[in-house]
Specification:
Blueprint lengths: L13 E5 L11 E6 L9 E3 L2 E3 L11 E5 L16 E6 L12 H16 L3 H6 L4 H18 L11
Antiparallel strand pairs: 1-5, 2-4, 2-6, 3-5
Length: about 160
């Protein structure tokens, strides 16, 4: 049965593909989840989210399909404009457990929600995992990139 609506078929918008020369190799059993750069509604395109089995496909560049959403655009995207954000995800389905909240869990839930809503910083101070080592690795990678490829381009309004 045909779809009643054609996905991504919007007047004034074009389907495009960002061709990359990146090859990404990951461990067996994992896939690459590619999506539009997070919190970047300002970009004149919208990446089509998808999975790439990069444990099997790593000898060629990954191409990223997108929808061009700004019909009046004229020009070239600035060097360094993010076009995709990728996360490594396991292909195996996780083992999930579902259970009904007992009275103790209900009370704990109610108290946690009340604390988070009434006191600034509760989530950050009590629940958020420390990421100091990750921040250092990201910082080191950025410095390494700058040393080999020059400074990173600014990301605000990259097409203007």
């Amino acid at each position: 049965m045909p779809l009643p609506v054609k996905p991504f078929a919007t007047p004034g918008q074009a389907a495009i593909k960002f061709n990359s020369f990146w090859t990404i190799q990951i461990e067996d059993g994992w896939s690459l989840f590619a999506t539009h750069p997070v919190n970047r509604e300002d970009l004149p395109f919208r990446l089509v989210t998808g999975l790439v089995d990069s444990d099997r496909f790593s000898d060629g560049g990954i191409n990223f399909p997108a929808i061009w959403t700004e019909p009046g655009f004229s020009g070239v995207l600035r060097k360094g404009t993010p076009v995709a954000q990728c996360f490594v995800v396991p292909r195996a389905a996780p083992q999930l457990e579902y259970e009904v909240f007992d009275e103790k869990r209900q009370a704990s839930y109610a108290q946690t929600v009340a604390d988070v809503l009434s006191t600034p910083g509760v989530y950050r101070k009590r629940f958020r995992a420390r990421r100091g080592l990750l921040r250092q690795r990201v910082s080191d990678a950025a410095l390494s990139h700058q040393a080999t490829a020059g400074p990173l381009a600014p990301t605000s309004a990259p097409w203007r």
